Amino acid sequence: MQHNLRVDRLIRQGKLILPAFVLVIASSTWAQTPAAHATFTDINAPEAGTLIYQGTYATCINTAGTIAGYYADQSNVYHGFIRSTAGVYTTVDAPGAGTAAYQGTEVFGINTAGDITGYYFDSASVYHAFVQQAGGTPVSFDVTGAGTAVDQGTLAFGINTAGDVTGYYVDSGSLNHAFRRSPSGTIAKINFTGAGRGLGEGTLAISINAANDLAGYYYDAGGLAHGFVGKTSSTLVAINAPGAGTGNSQGTVVTSINAASAVVGIYTDSIGARHGWLQPSGGSLVEFDAPGAGTQYNQGTQPYGINGGGTITGDYLDSGTVFHGFVRNAAGTVTTFNAPGAGTGLAQGTIGYSVNTAGDIVGWYFDSGTVIHGFLRTP
Fold this sequence. Notes:
By secondary structure, the protein is mainly β. About 0% of the residues lie in helices and about 45% in strands.
């Protein structure tokens, strides 16, 4: 299977959904409407574009409530941003970022201190990772062995409280390899034993916690996805949801890990429908679906973030392939929500993406013109 290296951006644009993974747990309870006291605040970067698939993606929020993400401007160039709790926006453009359409800077991770990480596309559409300390400027880095052709290079997604960064790099053969970068700049390469070595296969890390546990997924030689968690290549443990399909582009992926090393993710079943799952550290895997989730190909439940208390957020696609946000509390109750202004057409709607310790959720929604707006949902 050839992995699409722009998969994360395409997910956020509603053009593609991650391979995903679930069984409905009878003990879970469901709430179909958002809590009456939840409030929504739009997150729109001042220079964000207002045409189709332009706008603001709020991808992460820290304990203090500082929000980060990226936006597409009127020329479809990407720029990172940080939004303070006072509502002040700061643009983040990594040195060397390209300025043509679909190039630029994207932020995916923020820690308690306000340090951020992400990646940028240069003028040749090669990926480079960066980290920026709070109040500082972006420092770019490339893992040795990263390719230098289009859609190759280094991508960073997660940052923990100490400033360790994780992500993956794409080598000259378009094979993926995970990495962890220490605050001092030392990089450890991580590969799951048994990962495929063909085009688009290999190991991809997405999230990291304070204990330096990495979470992500790998593709085997048949293009099947398997989740994993662990610190080093030799200690990675595979995660496979029981309901996951076994065909190409099916299987199990991990999307987030919390401070207690509980992991969440998505599995794709044998017909291509998605389902959510949660596995506490040392516990059994629990599968779940949001109420109203569609059951056909490219529909279903997609969890993306989990906080230290076990609250999960994500989205589901209904039978009309419209996105709706959800939050699942530690007791298993799922509450669905829709951001005010979200469209109701095909591939429009609301996506929950990150949740902090207070239960504040950030994400984005597609309006009726498929323009993108970030949001903050406060419980």
